[in-house]
Amino acid sequence: MTVSIRPLDPLKDAELIHPWVTHPKAAFWMMQDAKLQDVERAYMEIAAHPHHDAFIGLVDGAPAFLMERYDPAEAELVGLYEAQPGDVGMHFLVAPTDTPVHGFTRLVITAVMHELFADPATARVVVEPDVRNTAVHALNAAVGFVPEREIQKPEKAALLSFCTRAQFEAATAATGATA
Predict the structure, then answer these.
(1) Residue 32: how many CB atoms within 10 A of its CB?
(2) For a tag site, which of 82, 167, 168, 174 has the least CB within 10 Å?
(3) What is the strand order of the sheet 87-94 is part of?
(4) What is the pLDDT, as a whole number, of residue 175?
């Protein structure tokens, strides 16, 4: 499978991602009741933010996941931990499907991490998933994330976790994971 990532266009892509972010399996995305205009607005805000970006991931040319990258010193985690130079925050969401493919989500998170570490300035990836989202905790661990502590964000209790380039490379080398 070939993975590519392109910038998300809030106006053109809102219709594509609306069913993704409102799907029951996307409960931790916290947009369950969002209307199309709400999704447009949310991603317009991200597009306008100088330290937050959104992307569409394609697998074999078909849109398959949503990825967000942010500077945790300027967005999402401001004041919740001591950001270090080279920290990059990340969110990802795999599009819902009626025909799940074994290992697909692992392929996606590996591709997302490769994309983030493709920037030589990225030293460490930071995530803050909901503490109840055990499925994503397992995926994060599989690519090298190490939980540090629980933090309280305005919208959730989150598990602050970090993954250095070396941790990612060791985790993916150990499993032979590629993207």
Answers:
(1) 12
(2) 82
(3) 3-7, 52-59, 62-70, 87-94, 124-127, 157-164, 146-152
(4) 65
